[in-house]
Amino acid sequence: MTGADLLRLTDDEVCSLALRYDGVARPPLPTIDERSEPELLAALLRGRRSLIVRDLGGLDGAPLGGALEVYRRLSAGPCAMFSLADADGNWVRSGLTIYLYGPSVASVEMSQVIAEAGVHSFRIAPPAGQWQALTELAGEIYASGLDNVAEGGQAPVPAAALLHVFRPDGIRFIRVAKGAVTTGRGPVPARFPSVTDAVSWLLA
What we know:
The protein has one domain (6-203). Helix content is 29%, strand content 23%.
C-alpha cells in the first residue's frame, strides 16, 4: 500500500478492526447501530469474513496488508476530526466527515473520509496540509455559510461544522456557522472573534 493508494473498507470491516482495541475514540459506523451489542457482533463477524476474502485479514481475525497499516493508526486514535451537525448538535451522516490520524495535526499519517453509505476511504501518508485544509474550510463556512459543503435536500439540514482536536488532556472542539464560532459547550458557549483565534485555542 503506497501513499498514493486508497483503501476502502465497509462499516463491517472497520467494525471488525475497531473492536480489537479500546481506550481511544473510534470512528462512527453510519450503517450500524453501535448501541446494539448483537448488531455490533454480527457486523464484526461479517467484517472479519470480508477481510479474509479480500486477503486483508487472517483466520484469527488479525489484519493483514493495507488493513494492518490502517489498524495501526486507528488503534492509536485520531488527532482531529471534521463533521457537520444539525441544529441540535447531531451528526449529519450525509455531510462531509473526515478523521485525521498521527502524533499531532502537524504530523498526519492517515486520513479517513466516511460516507453515509458506510464506506470508509483511508489514505496512508496523505498529502501535506490536511489540518490546514480543514481549518481553511472552517474559515470558508464562517465567511459564507454551509452552501459549499452541504448538498441541497440533505436531511437533517446541516446547521454548523464541528472541528475537534484530540489531545492528551482530552478533546476540544469548536462549532462554526456563518459569522459565528464558539466552543460548542455549555448553556452559553464561549465565542471567538475569528476562526483563527478558535483554532489557536484548540491547539493551545
